[in-house]
Design a protein that fits this description.
The complex is a heterodimer of chains A (about 110) and B (about 120).
Chain A lengths: L3 E2 L4 E5 L4 E7 L6 E7 L6 E7 L4 E4 L2 E6 L4 E6 L8 E8 L7 E2 L3 E6 L1
Chain B lengths: L4 E3 L2 E4 L5 E6 L6 E8 L3 E9 L2 E5 L6 E5 L5 E5 L8 E8 L12 E2 L3 E5 L1
Parallel strand pairs in B: 2-11
Antiparallel strand pairs in B: 1-3, 3-8, 4-5, 4-9, 5-6, 7-8, 9-10, 9-11
Classes of the chains: A mainly beta (about 110), B mainly beta (about 120).
Chain lengths: ~110, ~120
Amino acid sequence: DQQVKQNSPSLSVQEGRISILNCDYTNSMFDYFLWYKKYPAEGPTFLISISSIKDKNEDGRFTVFLNKSAKHLSLHIVPSQPGDSAVYFCAAGMQGAQKLVFGQGTRLTINP
Amino acid sequence: KAGVTQTPRYLIKTRGQQVTLSCSPISGHRSVSWYQQTPGQGLQFLFEYFSETQRNKGNFPGRFSGRQFSNSRSEMNVSTLELGDSALYLCASNSLKAGGHSYNEQFFGPGTRLTVL
């Protein structure tokens, strides 16, 4: 039962353009969401998070949008840079439990 | 602050053997979680420890176990290894305090790559 889904295994974007990574979830009990970036042979690195009481959180070039009614969140990266090329995981959690449920990941490639 | 460290980074074992992986969290962090990453299943939660107590557990067989020491360092053990246990095992820590909310992000170590032959 895949509670968190990233339906696009890969995404290719031109440098300077906007990258939009999508994530859907099924469990309405999730109340916070995170995005992680992962390079090969390294552990995931935290990027940005959002609580279910918000619909948007912004940090520099990264913005996460949450649509609770659609059980959908997205990560926008503007402008995209070559160093953003990595695998991006969306994760969801519930207050009181340190268990994160991860999506399968989306490989983002930024083309110069 | 030093990050989360995991040892060893790479390990090769044969079926039927057992293995112990170690994780040292960020100084001051008391919550340690373990995840398994495989190409087919993605990142899956194994268990979480806080103050030497297992608080959360994922859907893994009893061959997977762990513990946490008084200095917050954690170990996970896999007994009777199977080929399907080949994976990247990731440890994460966060600064969650007792009674605090859990919105703190988890900081991951580099992982231990386990290969079972």
